[in-house]
Amino acid sequence: MKDGPLHSLIKMLSSLPGLGNRSARRIALYLLSRREDFMVPLAEMILQVAREVKRCEICGNLDMVSPCGVCQDVRRSGDQVCVVAQVSDLWAIERTGAYKGRYHVLGGLLSALDGIGPEQLHIESLITRVRMGEIREVILALSATVDGQSTAHYIADHLVGLDVQVTHFAHGMPVGGELDYLDDGTITTALRSRA
Amino acid sequence: MKDGPLHSLIKMLSSLPGLGNRSARRIALYLLSRREDFMVPLAEMILQVAREVKRCEICGNLDMVSPCGVCQDVRRSGDQVCVVAQVSDLWAIERTGAYKGRYHVLGGLLSALDGIGPEQLHIESLITRVRMGEIREVILALSATVDGQSTAHYIADHLVGLDVQVTHFAHGMPVGGELDYLDDGTITTALRSRA
Question: Taking CB atoms and an 8 Å cutoff, what residues of chain A touch B56?
Answer without folding.
Answer: none
